Amino acid sequence: MNAENGQNITVYLTEEQINKRVAEIGAEITERFKGESVYLICILKGSIFFTTELAKRIDLPMNIDFMTVSSYGASTVSSGVINVKQDLSGSIEGENVIVVEDIIDSGNTLSRLLQLFRSRNPKTLTLCTLLDKPERRVVKDVEVDYTGFVVPDKFIVGYGLDWDQKYRNLPYIGFVED
Ligand code: IMP
Ligand code: MG
Question: Which domains does the chain show, CATH number per domain?
Fold first, then answer.
């Protein structure tokens, strides 16, 4: 499939497959935190689509907050360094925090983010990612609680994921062909 201008994109997960899986995760989280409230943290920009769809599938009182961290830029290789560009708007102390990520690759981003969130004393800290690329993991201490799909070691775009800021708006998830 040719998405607007540029690379050929091979569809890997359709919108229907993604929506079904997101609803399943939402139901599991609803069950897990029954009788409590949750504090969803969307890691911008990549996880914006996943966060909003997931939030609609969680039947609990919730706060939704956002954090912006540095990304790869035009490169497709992790720098291993993260930079918090925009912090949360509220305190997470005593909250059931659910960190919502688009994809875990090397694990560097989340390893550092989890350290930061832990230092702010949430009641619980849960990690939820739409995609996981375990073959690429460098950091070993990142334990994922909810994973949408395990994906192979290819560069993925769509449903929030970008290639040099392009393709985030694709409603499906695909591979950029070499
Ligand atoms: P990590 O620090 O290497 O785990 O990288 C995490 C971040 O890199 C993700 O939140 C994405 O923003 C970005 N990323 C990693 N792999 C891909 C990919 O295949 N496509 C698009 N973005 C990616
Ligand atoms: Mg991201």
Answer: 15-150 (3.40.50.2020)
